[in-house]
Amino acid sequence: MSVWPRAGFLATDDWLPALPVLLALRRRLAAIGFHTTAALPLPGNVLDLPLDVANARAFVRGRQNLFHHSALAGAYRRVLGHQNPEAVALHELLTLNRMLPRARVAELLSPRLLDELVDHGVFSEDEGIVESNIVAAVSGGRVYLADAPHLRDDPDYVYLGRSSFSPAGYLASIDWRPPRHSARAPRRMLDLGCGAGPAAVAAGAAGVEHVIGTDIVERCLRYARLNAALNGVDTTEFRYSDVLSAVEGDFDLIVSNAPCVWEELQQATFATGGADFGTALPVRMIREALGRLRPSGLMYVVMTAPIVDGDDYVVEAMRRACREHSVDVCIHPELAEYEVEQRSVLRRHKISSFIRYGVVIEFADRFSVSVGSSFDAMRYRTYGVRSRATRAAAALVRA
Ligand SMILES: C[S@@+](CC[C@H](N)C(=O)[O-])C[C@H]1O[C@@H](n2cnc3c(N)ncnc32)[C@H](O)[C@@H]1O
After folding, report:
1. In sequence order, what are the beta bridge partners of 126?
2. Is 158 exposed, middle or buried (0-12, 13-18, 19+ CB in 10 A)?
3. What are 291-311's pLDDT values in tens digits?
């Protein structure tokens, strides 16, 4: 029953008529306190139990658990559901992308708003059951929309996931200003491959003076402009550009949640990073972007790379990307969650796993690459254990 987004929501540049309807949805979400659902982790299994130390702490403090897994997800939902049943029900429809009966959605939103959302292709309705074609995720009190996961095979699919919020999370932790940047000077920021615009919109909302988000997929730019409008950000510019081809000038902050899926393992246009295990495109992005980073600037890149024959391939990729510059590269393991089906391909290339990293790059006196750590790295390591255990269990069942 899903609509193919090319024929549906945000399929053309003529999407402005949908804006009042989505603003009405945004107001409804604000009125019921939808932002509280950011503290809800995703349903996981018993192997996620170690994560619940961090999940529970964040939940109690009303902080972000967005897209983290939990063995106790139902318990968190029940606790929040006692206080705010409407927010939890809409989280089910809009963030977990489960189908709900029409009568329930009409009750949550109003029959008229529901009909308008169906008319604009935001929701699909079939035999009294409603499915959302968008995913809505809350971060920093703002709501971001992108394509629902069931549209993933569309070549124009617009991604929003856990890694989308990593650049803004890091930059917020340094107050959106590189350590060596003058406190009075205005900041110029570039979000390379901005997708639905989570980093660029958050930067605009945080008061970064000049923000440009770029992408090569027009639907991404539409979503990014829509997300800026929904969150009252009108200072951020979004434009079409193949890496830096349509961008001029230098920047104090450059971020990229780069596409880095290895083509041999998965075909997904939004994420394909090309050769060298999917690092070719991110390496090209970093190399070109370094030429536009001001001497006092900072670059933050989310990147996925394999462990090859026991070595972190990300170190090799960073050497390729940065070798012409005197820079300090600090690599933080962020996520070990990348499950891939084709075990024979991995074995042939001596790859044990893929890990997602947050990479901080700053100009320095000499070239250095270090692998740092963080509290989150420990949390994310649990995902690695989880995926290995799941694979081992699957192998046992097959045997
Ligand atoms: C993994 S997605 C991340 C999107 C977004 N930054 C986020 O964090 O949610 C990678 C993005 O890079 C874009 N992209 C791929 N190749 C690109 C290129 N050559 N130039 C600019 N953007 C590109 C894709 O369209 C996609 O939106």
Report:
1. 129
2. buried
3. 999 999 999 999 988 888 888
137 touches ligand 1 (CB under 6 Å)? no
Length of the chain: 399
> How crowded is residue 398: how many other Cβ atoms within 10 Å of its Cβ?
6
304 lines ligand 1 (CB under 6 A): no
Percent pLDDT > 90 in the chain is 61
Please give the number of the atom of ligand 1 that sits closest to the Cα of 165.
8
What residue segments make up the domains of the chain, in order of their start?
5-139, 155-398
**Which tokens go with 175?**
């107050």
Atom of ligand 1 nearest to the CA of 167: 8
**Ligand 1 within 6 A of CB of 118:** no
Confidence of residue 4 (pLDDT cuts 50, 70, 90): very low
Q: Is 160 in the pocket of ligand 1 (CB under 6 A)?
A: yes
pLDDT digits over 221-245, tens only? 999 999 999 999 999 999 999 999 9
For the chain, give the percent of residues with pLDDT over 70. Answer: 90
Enumerate the β-bridge partners of residue 293. Answer: 251
Amino acid identity of residue 133, one-letter, is N
Cβ burial, residue 138 (10 Å; 0-12/13-18/19+): buried
What's the rounded mean pLDDT across residues 116-136? Answer: 95
> What is the C-alpha end-to-end distance of the chain, expressed in Å?
37
Going from the Cα of 160 to the center of ligand 1, the distance in angstroms, rounded, reads: 11
3 state DSSP class of 34? helix
Of ligand 1's listed atoms, the one at least distance from the Cα of 159 is 9
> What is the C-alpha to C-alpha distance for residues 180 and 33, in angstroms, rounded to an integer?
38
Query: Which one of 162, 257, 292, 302 would you pick to mutate in the ligand 1 pocket, going by the greatest count of ligand atoms within 8 A of its CB?
Result: 257
pTM of the model: 0.90
Strand order in the sheet with 100-101: 100-101, 129-132, 123-126
Helix (H) or strand (E) holding 281: helix 280-290
> Closest by alpha carbon to 336, among 16, 47, 125, 3?
47
- 72 has a pLDDT exceeding 70: yes
pLDDT digits (tens, 9 = 90+) for 175-208: 999 999 999 999 999 999 999 999 999 999 999 9
- CATH class label, 155-398: alpha beta
For 357-376, write each residue's pLDDT tens digit: 899 999 999 999 988 766 56
Residue nearest to atom 24 of ligand 1 (CA): 270
